[in-house]
Design a protein that fits this description.
two-stranded antiparallel sheet, 2 strands, mainly alpha, 515 residues
Length: 515
């Protein structure tokens, strides 16, 4: 307990009623970032006291603080409830700056929950208010959050547009603390868009600003991005040198999560350049933190990559240990991409052991998972396009009410393009589902028809044996039946191995499957 907290607790003991509100607020503010569970207790008492004395401003303030504490604790539904309550009161009493802050907080939770359309609607509603108030810090944060939404929706062009809007405001008004996040966001986005030169420019600006401000918590992330750019261009030694700087900074900051990420980057780079023993050393350093912090995504990916490195140096037993641990974690962690990665390496593992049957089984499971991943990606992209289309349509409708200029026609063209892409994606999905249904029907037919066919063929052979020699005419009939059975079996076997469905004309409006 800090001296300041002790002092505030002492003040709280000596006051009653309405006079408790101020020390309760200050106690909450002191504790909420470091001990949110403890801060909730004081914020709840503050909310109750402020409500009793009808102090709306403080009711809003304590509701906001309860929203923040619950957010830190991962209780997003409770956080959302308190932020909404605070925003409602702020709007009613005219505290519009605080209102926009709470609406932005609501949007952040909506982003976490995947409700991107609602998040964009909330954020866009803040823009005219923040412009009118001249609240440039919040306005830049709103633009930045809109960029985050479009980044999640894989619309890099619009994400960059809003990140640059936020950057422009922060540079114009010298908001240096916020500039760091702008440089980091833009640099990372451009790196993943393979615009390395531009990405490096913003990352370098971010690193210089970190040094100038003495703020080293964000510097490791920027160093990681810079290292990954260098590694992609083959500058392995320089990339590793920078990542080791990131490790040292994270150690100084006590940032275990940052250490885990930096070590995984080091392991990945060593593996890409076939330095498997060095890669495994980095993986083992990362595992100390990913296991402790339960960073499941990084831990499972790391275990699978480590297993692959062990296989490369023929340490099969160690690879087996890594795969077994990854598989155990995946029992309680639904992620088809990770399951696919696991099955790929398990197939290699079984092949190394000479168990080709199990290797093929893993390979088949991986093929099924990859097909599922592709289908899910297609469906997700359709949903993303629907959200972007709906948001842009609403933006266009709002602009039509306020303006009448040539820019609107360009927006309408953009809407039409999005609508066309959406329709094409939906058509592709329908075609995929139809093909899957045909292939499933073919598999069912193969299973259900083959059995009686085998009985027919066997009975035919027995009948020929029992009847003995028959007339030439009878022999021809037996031969025709046998050939027909064989033909049906060939057709069924063709369906059994078909991977794609194609059609040919049969009769009008009734195509048939081509074999």
């Amino acid at each position: 307990m800090t001296e300041r907290v002790k002092e505030l607790l002492g003040i709280l003991e000596g006051v009653e009623g309405k006079d408790r509100i101020d020390p309760l607020e200050r106690l909450t503010n002191n504790l909420m970032s470091t001990k949110p569970g403890e801060a909730i207790k004081y914020a709840a008492e503050g909310l109750k006291t402020a409500s009793e004395f009808q102090e709306d401003y403080y009711v809003s303030t304590f509701s906001n603080r309860l929203g923040i504490c619950n957010y830190y604790l991962g209780n997003f539904e409770d956080s959302l409830m308190f932020y909404k309550k605070a925003a409602e009161i702020d709007n009613r009493i005219g505290e519009m700056k605080n209102y926009c802050t709470n609406i932005s907080n609501i949007a952040v939770i909506k982003i976490i929950q995947g409700n991107y359309a609602e998040a964009l609607e909330s954020l866009n509603s803040c823009i005219p208010i923040e412009k009118e108030l001249g609240n440039y810090e919040n306005l830049s944060s709103t633009y930045n959050n809109i960029g985050n939404v479009y980044n999640k929706l894989n619309d890099n062009e619009r994400a960059l547009k809003y990140y640059l809007k936020a950057l422009s405001i922060r540079e114009e008004h010298n908001l240096e603390r916020l500039l760091l996040s702008s440089y980091a966001n833009i640099g990372a986005l451009l790196r993943t868009s393979y615009e390395s030169e531009r990405a490096n420019m913003y990352i370098e600006k971010g690193i210089e600003l970190c040094d100038k401000l003495g703020q080293f918590h964000q510097k490791p992330f920027l160093l990681n991005q810079r290292a990954l750019i260098l590694a992609s261009s083959g500058e392995l030694d320089t990339a590793l040198e920078i990542l080791n700087q990131s490790v040292e900074l994270n150690k100084q900051n006590g940032n275990k999560e940052g250490l885990a990420v930096a070590y995984e980057h080091i392991a990945e780079i060593y593996s890409d350049f076939q330095c498997y023993k060095e890669s495994l050393d980095a993986h083992n350093n990362s595992f100390r933190y990913t296991r402790e912090l339960k960073m499941m995504d990084y831990l499972i990916k790391g275990l699978v990559r480590a297993a692959n490195s062990y296989l490369k140096i023929h340490e099969v037993e160690k690879a087996e240990e890594m795969l077994a641990e990854a598989e155990e974690y995946l029992k309680n962690y639904e992620d088809d991409n990770l399951k696919s990665d696991l099955n790929k390496i398990k197939a290699k593992y079984y092949a190394e052991r000479g168990d080709y049957k199990k290797a093929f089984e893993c390979s088949d499971r991986n093929s099924d998972l990859e097909a599922k991943i592709r289908d899910n990606a297609l469906k997700q992209r359709a949903q993303e396009l629907e959200i972007i289309y709906a948001v842009e349509r609403k933006e266009t409708e709002n602009e039509i009410l306020q303006h009448n200029n040539t820019e609107l026609s360009e927006k309408n063209l953009r809407l039409e393009e999005l609508n066309r892409e959406l329709l094409e994606t939906q058509k592709s999905l329908q075609e995929k589902e139809r093909k899957v249904a045909v292939l499933a029907m073919a598999a069912t037919a193969n299973h259900e028809i083959n059995q009686p066919l085998m009985i027919i063929k066997g009975s035919l052979e027995l009948l020929e044996m029992e009847l003995g020699k028959v007339s030439p005419k009878g022999s021809r009939h037996f031969k025709h039946i046998s050939e027909s059975v064989d033909r049906i079996q060939r057709i069924l076997n063709t369906y059994k191995t078909v991977n794609n469905v194609e059609y040919e004309d049969y009769v009008e409006d009734n195509p048939m499957v081509s074999i």
